[in-house]
Amino acid sequence: MKIGFIGLGNLGAPIARRLMSRGHELVVLDSRSDAMSPFVAQGALAARTPREVADVAQVVFVCLPSTDAVEEVACGESGVAGGAAVRIFIDLSTSDPERAQAIAQRLAESSIAMLDSPVSGGVLRAQAGTLTVMVSGAAQTLSEVRALLDAIGPVHHLGERPGSAQVMKLINNLLSAAAFTATAEAMVMGVKAGLDASQMIEVLNTGTGRNSATQDKFPHAILSRTFHIGAATSVMIKDVSLCMEHAARLGLKLSLAQPMLDLWGQVAQEQGADSDYSEIVKMLERRAGVEVKA
Mean pLDDT across the stretch 187-210? Predict the structure, then answer.
């Protein structure tokens, strides 16, 4: 199958490589030519616009940093909606659920079925093909591309209503952000009190405090001092903000989200919005005068 893939960033690139490894011919597009070059060298076709991708690919994946970017790629002047070949549009991004519904409706007017299919798990799991894949959209559409999504990771169909998978992703990311924020503060506190960081992680991972940060992110990115999880601070802020906005539409207030968002805003100011979000630890370390390391 000829597949279009738009957005070859930290997650998009390893996902696209997995699809190529399954023997599919790719048509790729990214705002950075150097991101496309490795794929072209392996036989992929390079496109100049989303419509060019959709003119030759029946299935188009997008993995983009914002809902605005998804909407422009899908429905803009040179968007996927105008493509001659495309039948299915799969959004792997984390997007606003309400706008995902609107994008799906606009694509349907061009006889293009949409699956919103955000993923969770980070770069290492993207490389291994073990991402958690959340999908909402028509069951028949999912059945047509199930083998493609299975190459990415375990698939969870959350219903046919567009945007449902995006709600699930925002809930997941809110909890992930809370775990990382709390773990960062706790680890800095422990080191300040004279505890060994590696021993703390060992204890937490055999106790009730274990979470995705203690089990994966701290051992791989913090104790090693690499500070590379593969997502920017701005993405963390975007995801928590989207979750809060959707909760507000439901008439709910997420009491813990705003203080957490305020803290991440400080990280963006001190470390830069494009910094890896693991660098919240650096900010907390400076304030405490310690380093969390093995």
Answer: 98
The residue length of the chain stands at: 294
Q: β-strands 45-46, 59-62: how paired?
A: unpaired
Give the pLDDT mean for 177-199: 98
CATH tag, 166-288: 1.10.1040.10
Which superfamily does 2-160 belong to? NAD(P)-binding Rossmann-like Domain (3.40.50.720)
For 233-289, how does the pLDDT look when each residue is reduced to its tens digit (9 = 90+)? 999 999 999 999 999 999 999 999 999 999 999 999 999 999 999 999 999 999 999
Choose the catalytic residue: 2, 169, 282, 293: 169
Q: Is the pLDDT of residue 1 over 90?
A: no
Say whether 238 is catalytic.
no
Whether pLDDT at 178 is above 90: yes
Q: What is the pLDDT of residue 5?
A: 98
* Domain map (residue ranges) of the chain: 2-160, 166-288
